[in-house]
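Deliverable D2.4 — example input (structure tokens):
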């Protein structure tokens, strides 16, 4: 302190002025942030509600999805189900005593495969046909008795089958030999064995028996030959008729039977001798 006035110096005069600064988001940025948080919360609530609704509609539970129940070793379906892709399963069966129904707009195909995935057998059920592709086709009855067996070498009908009946309007055609113990028709229709182009051959190791309750007719356009290499040909009947034979004279009430050297039979009057002519023995 000195004369002429007083001068005071303090520490406050030397400190700079402090300007307060705001920290945070203010204004329109803050409002946008709140809006985004609110929008996100709304989306989460909607997503959660949709998830709960979907689980409720599909009847999803820890045991399965709706009518589909998943167990340790199987999948059980209690209602109708539609498969859009191939189905691979080792066993498919119906529930309890309900029938198993398979429906398809085109066809139903069953495939069996080997260890390499190659198709070894196929069964196709189509709209107009049923096809089986395999090396062997077998049909059994309910008691596991073989009814039908077919392969590329042999076609077998089981011993349990008593009768095999073909009901076709145009008959049954066989391109190869037919081996059977007996061939018969029913009580109403006739049995006809014919070959329109080739031959009909009937062979047997022992004997051939042809029997009928009514008539037996045999006809041909060419020659008919009855021959026996070691045995005899026996015509056994109380009434044997051979109509249409050539006669060497005019009509008579009785004739004698003559045989040509070539084996042809002709008729002659009883008072005449069997004189062959160019007409009777050509």
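Example output (designed residues):
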């Amino acid at each position: 302190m000195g004369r002429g006035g007083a001068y005071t110096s303090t520490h406050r005069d030397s400190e700079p002025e402090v300007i307060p600064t705001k920290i945070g988001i203010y204004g329109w940025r803050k409002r946008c942030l709140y809006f985004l948080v609110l929008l996100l919360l709304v989306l989460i609530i909607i997503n959660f509600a949709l998830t709960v609704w979907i689980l409720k509609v599909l009847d999803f539970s820890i045991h399965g999805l709706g009518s589909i129940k998943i167990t340790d070793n199987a999948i059980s379906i209690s209602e109708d189900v539609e498969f859009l892709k191939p189905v691979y399963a080792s066993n498919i069966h119906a529930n309890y005593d309900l029938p198993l129904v398979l429906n398809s707009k085109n066809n139903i195909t069953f495939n069996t495969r080997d260890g390499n995935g190659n198709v070894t057998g196929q069964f196709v059920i189509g709209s107009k046909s049923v096809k089986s592709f395999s090396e062997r086709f077998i049909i059994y009855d309910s008691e596991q008795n073989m009814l039908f067996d077919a392969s590329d070498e042999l076609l077998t009908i089981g011993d349990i089958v008593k009768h095999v009946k073909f009901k076709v309007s145009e008959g049954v055609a066989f391109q190869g030999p037919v081996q059977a113990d007996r061939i018969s028709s029913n009580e109403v229709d006739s049995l006809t064995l014919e070959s329109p182009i080739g031959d009909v051959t009937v062979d047997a190791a022992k004997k051939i028996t042809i029997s009928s309750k009514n008539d037996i007719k045999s006809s041909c356009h060419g020659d008919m030959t009855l021959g026996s290499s070691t045995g005899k040909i026996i015509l056994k009947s109380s009434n044997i008729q051979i109509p249409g034979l050539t006669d060497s004279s005019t009509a008579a009430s009785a004739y004698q039977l003559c045989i040509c050297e070539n084996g042809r039979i002709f008729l002659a009057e009883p008072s005449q001798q069997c004189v062959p002519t160019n007409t009777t023995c050509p």
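The mean pLDDT is 78.
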